[in-house]
User: What shape does this take?
Amino acid sequence: MTATGSLSGQPSALRFRPAFTLVELLVTIAILGILMGLVLPAIGVVRETARRSSCQNNLKEIGTAMIHFETLNGRLPGWRDTIPAYSNSADDQVGPTRKCVSWTIPILPELGNNEVFSWYDQFSGVSGDDPNLNPQSDGAEDYNTLKQKRLPIYVCPTATMPRDNPGVLHYAVNGGTCGEELDDPDTPADPDDDDQVQYRGDGVFIDAAGNLSTSSWSSTSDGRINYKPTRSNPLGGAGLDGDSSTLLMAERAGPATNLEGVYWALTPSPAQTEATAIAELSIADKAHIFGHPPELGSVRPQGFKSYRVINPVWGENDTAPLSVVDWPFRFPSSSHRGKGANVIFCDSHTRFLDETVDSWVYCQMLTSSKQNLSPRAAAWQKYDHDNDNNASTTDVNYIFDEKDLEKKL
Assistant: This one.
């Protein structure tokens, strides 16, 4: 009689094991953990790549709207501009500090948002003594409600959304020297004209409203100065540096910027001189524009061949010679992986600009024309070719080369 090895008469080799051993279970969990550790970062990278691409698409769409606006109007919108029905309102509640609008408003029809644009374009005054600009028409929104509207085209998907500001703006336009540099030319027709003018070649966008004492939106508080409105240089016009190498817009949504108060509906303040602007910066001063570094002094930026002009460092005085409030708002920034920021050029091509770009290269991309430059912008067109950190050494003219965008600080 043959032994079966079990009471059932079946060979022991055919028995089924009831469960994993503890060691097998731990090994399986460890393998799954490793796989998840490999997959999740890859998913995060893919999602961030999609968000960065979406941000570039926003810039592309806004840039296209800008170009279409210029085609229809013969100029770009100003970084400070006017809408006739709104800006010329005789109602005292639409005071000087509110009568001008940002570049974000005139291009809304080109972006397909006639609803919001009509709030300004069909403005008929305010009701009662409410300073929040309640239109007289029944059921219309007041200004505080309007500015809270979230306009997705003005929002970078990667940037952190402020808790109290769904109407945040994450993009800024090339404002050159931001109106901080003004000229006071005497013309044969008016040799005693004291009205200052803006340098059109310093950047792409200018103050199209101006701040003349005769205008109803004039304001000279906090060191604001009087100057004439100006039309932007036409894109593709003769004498320009080149649309393909001139910045039109950029992100300005880095972690160092306090975006709680940066609304797309914010009213920009008139320009100040550089010294006053540095000392008394408010959110409304550079909320919707980016621009040049400060004037080059007798000594070059210490410790660096140039300033950090993309994703500027918050609170480090060696890289931020101005106040820590001013510095992050003066330059492009983002929260994207890869340490840089999305930008769009005047020919509507986009790229991700590395944060290590040299400030001399950056300044070259700001100027739209060599024919009307301020002394400050002109100084940034030359560079310290021998890197001796000595302003007494003769500088040489810098000629833009796209390969320089890949060079490190």
Summary: The CA atoms of residues 357 and 405 lie 6 Å apart. The radius of gyration is 28 Å.
